[in-house]
């Protein structure tokens, strides 16, 4: 049997080599290799918090091993004080250092939570690019409302330009995430979330859904390209040249194609105006403005559709008053129950 000391000598070079290999491959770890300002700030926050916590963790590990070795049963030279029970100096050190570290972490967390708020627009002299992202089963649809084009599973944007993402879902809840650029945020039906990012250098950055959503979840990824202004304009011209048109009918067809494999990049040269608001409004139903702020246009469209539907089904004949009263009571009960259910989920 190989002695533990000999085994340790053999494994030590291999462990060091593995560590070097992992360090040289850190570029593959997107979070630790940010390409945008938000990602860089989050990396700094992560490292700072880790170092502050290690100020407690490392000494505790060292002291645990030291005490275990020094006061082992075979060491008869160690001091033996069975009646010892308290030391003010130890209590001060044990409590003051962690309390100071927790205080520093609290201030750091408070400030960074506001500074890195995903809803907070980025300050820049460059006009931002607005992208409306809709999660489907199982693919991402990106609409450029100002350019009136749309793309499936691909986005391109100019480098050093703020990106204003408006995000929602046409199905279940998902999570929009480009690790190289920064924060993750959820996409939810009938709700609009926002995310502001920026790329400080050109390149290809993988994007994904970081929230499990069903059979094709593993294939629900896309590529984000940070390019020069000229390349961005050239790409827009390429998308506009596409013959596909994205309207309510083609959107429904796209959503019904529940792909379990990766959905190929698809360009839509023309997009129906207000499609993103329509996707929001069609899922709202009676659940209006519980905890989230929706588009006024989308809400108005939903109200108009509901009003027209009630008018279209207006009674044309007189009914027995007793039966009408029963139907009205049942309808009111259903409506109140429905609202209560939505209020509960909203809260």
Automatic annotation (TrEMBL):
Recorded family membership: Belongs to the cytochrome c oxidase subunit 2 family.
Membrane topology: Multi-pass membrane protein
Pfam families: COX_ARM (PF06481)
Segments passing through the bilayer: 44-69, 89-110
Superkingdom classification of source: Bacteria
Region of interest called Disordered, as start-end residue ranges on this chain: 295-347
Protein name (database record): Ubiquinol oxidase subunit 2
Organism, scientific name: Stenotrophomonas cyclobalanopsidis
């Amino acid at each position: 049997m190989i002695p533990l000391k000999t085994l340790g000598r053999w494994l030590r070079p291999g462990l060091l080599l593995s560590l070097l290999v992992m360090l040289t491959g850190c570029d593959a770890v997107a979070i630790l290799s940010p390409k945008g300002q938000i990602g860089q700030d989050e990396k700094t926050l992560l490292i700072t918090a880790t170092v502050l916590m290690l100020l407690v963790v490392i000494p505790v590990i060292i002291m645990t091993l030291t005490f275990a070795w020094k006061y082992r049963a075979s060491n008869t030279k160690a001091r033996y004080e069975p009646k010892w029970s308290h030391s003010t100096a130890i209590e001060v050190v044990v409590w003051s250092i962690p309390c100071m570290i927790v205080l520093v972490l609290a201030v750091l967390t408070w400030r960074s939570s506001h500074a890195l708020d995903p809803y907070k627009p980025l300050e820049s002299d460059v006009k931002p690019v607005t992208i409306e992202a809709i999660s489907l089963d199982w693919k991402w649809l990106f609409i450029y409302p100002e350019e009136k084009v749309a793309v499936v599973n691909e986005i391109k944007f100019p480098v050093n330009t703020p990106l204003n993402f408006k995000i929602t879902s046409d199905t279940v809840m998902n999570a929009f995430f480009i690790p190289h650029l920064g924060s993750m945020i959820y996409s939810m039906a009938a709700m609009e979330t926002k995310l502001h990012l920026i790329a400080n250098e050109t390149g290809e950055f993988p994007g994904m859904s970081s929230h499990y959503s069903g059979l094709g979840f593993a294939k629900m990824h896309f590529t984000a390209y940070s390019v020069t202004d000229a390349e961005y304009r050239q790409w827009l011209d390429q998308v506009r040249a596409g013959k596909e048109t994205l309207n309510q009918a083609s959107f429904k067809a796209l959503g019904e194609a529940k792909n379990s494999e990766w959905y190929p990049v698809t360009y839509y040269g023309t997009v129906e105006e207000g499609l993103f608001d329509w996707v929001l409004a069609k899922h709202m139903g009676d659940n209006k403005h519980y905890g989230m702020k929706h588009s006024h246009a989308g809400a108005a469209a939903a109200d108009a559709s509901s009003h027209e539907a009630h008018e279209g089904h207006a009674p044309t004949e007189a009914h027995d008053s007793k039966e009408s009263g029963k139907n009205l009571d049942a309808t009111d009960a259903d409506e109140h129950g429905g609202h209560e259910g939505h209020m509960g989920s909203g809260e």
